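The passage that follows is intended for readers who have already worked through the single-chain material. We present the inputs for a multi-component assembly, then the predicted structure in tokenized form, and finally a short commentary. You are encouraged to pause after the input and sketch how you expect the pieces to fit together before reading on.
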Amino acid sequence: MALAKDAQATRDRLVAAARAEFSRQGFERTTVREIAAAAGVNPALINRYFGGKERLFAEAVAIEIDFPDLSRTPRGDIGRALIRHFFARWDGGDGDDVLRVLIGTAATNDEGAARIRDILSGQIEPMVARATGSDRARERACLIATQILGLAYVRYVLALPDTDLPPETVSEAVGETIQRYLFAPLP
Amino acid sequence: MALAKDAQATRDRLVAAARAEFSRQGFERTTVREIAAAAGVNPALINRYFGGKERLFAEAVAIEIDFPDLSRTPRGDIGRALIRHFFARWDGGDGDDVLRVLIGTAATNDEGAARIRDILSGQIEPMVARATGSDRARERACLIATQILGLAYVRYVLALPDTDLPPETVSEAVGETIQRYLFAPLP
DNA sequence: GCCGCAGGTCAACAACTGTTTACATGAGGG
DNA sequence: CCCTCATGTAAACAGTTGTTGACCTGCGGC
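Having made your guess, compare it with the prediction:
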């Protein structure tokens, strides 16, 4: 049963509200009072439960990318498959995906930038190494990051309409780019 | 001769200082007092000359991309040429290039995002139309924007070291991507 | 020499920030 | 039943923010 006083539920609602607000306005613009109001709780609880705005932010952007299983995907289709996966995940959009939060906040928040670097090293690079078996996985992962983050930036930060970047065009054109960054010989 | 009281010089120093500070810290984190201190002037002058922080920002991020003349570049080399141009421009780095300011601030500042969209419509898209003569210039311009902004984001916001993204790898791999976004058939 | 006024200073303002402190409340074990 | 302590509240704090209005300052024309 739902208790009137439930610490865990309050924490969860704060994290959810924080994600939404940070995503909409970035770290600096978002105030703890806004987050608390959106969560329907008292602002002081942010300090009680998380120890401050910074620590709540860190909690709100903890993320696992959970790549699709590519082991059965034909080599030639991996690029397209990756793009489709990201597309589905982002545009399925409950609107507060953490990666979107990060892209927006990393720009002015070192903690956020460090998080993205962690994802690059800890999740994208291993995925590339696994999928390609090639050396230079680091370089390839960075190239892929430029394209995927750029796509996310244009779509969600600049908020270009679908007509400017039709999903099928993106899947095809960007998918092939990823494919090349994965497998094409590097200079 | 340099006057002790020179309104134009003061304005210029304020804009320059604003660019540097906004670039380093983004719009929200930067205070008018910091900008004034960096410019060596009184904070009140920001309001006198620009009418507020927002308006100073708008002035600081006014930008002309000034593309290279591509009319004599062989069709097959345009992608590479563009990337080299941006690279030279960004990394030549007096450290306060306006496009870098914009990328960092647009994330949480609608005015900034609108500026980038203006550049896309007013400068990148016409350049694409001119260079390719193709229809679908808009789509191609957006695709190019994803790659170029993503590259800038990874290099300057995430601040990955040169060893992760060696310039020659970028020129080649990303150059070819731009080339494809310019000329390859779209689905 | 003096005066007007563009150019620059100074201190204060009101609003808002994250955080802390002291206090209320009510569910659940004894 | 009542006492306790996790949970939640309210108010205040100290600092910072962008902005403003009243006030100097000194160059250029008379």
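Commentary: The mean pLDDT of chain A is 88. Chain A touches chain B through 48 residues (CB under 8 Å). How closely did your sketch match?
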